[in-house]
Amino acid sequence: MLHEKIAQSAMRHLAEGCNRIEKCLELTNDKTLWEHPNESLVSIGNLIQHVCGNVSQHILRGIGGEGFVRDRDSEFEKKEMLSRAQLVANVRDVVERACSVIGRMTSDDFERTFTIQGFTTDGVAVVAHVVEHFSYHVGQITYAVKLRENVSTGYYEGKDLNIP
Q: Which of 2, 46, 52, 127 could form a disulfide with 42, with the two C-beta atoms 3.0–4.6 Å apart?
């Protein structure tokens, strides 16, 4: 069924993004992890906190009905520096729980109306937004690590991406 394909694709993309975040954290140092390059940019650590807040608000609370109160602004404030291990544990926990919610969604859930952040939309749009938003910030994290550490992430190492 179509809703199952959408759910499987969303879960795969979220898991892939989670793996990429973990890889990036392995490649960066503590200074880079919490560095704010300028006043318009936040740290990698803050971006990770932000994606955790977004997934929690939209999927865990919005669709899954879990109790969660988000303080979005605080996700961007320089805070007590969490360790790499804690950041990885946080994002893995949120993604695993979100995948559980998405994996249980029925066709009706994908068509159901949800109001999140003051926007009224359906389940398909909520899931699509979360995957797009998560992937967008994974790309920012990847770029920041490559730029600051001058390393390759090796995401596609050993794969021939020219195969049709």
A: 46
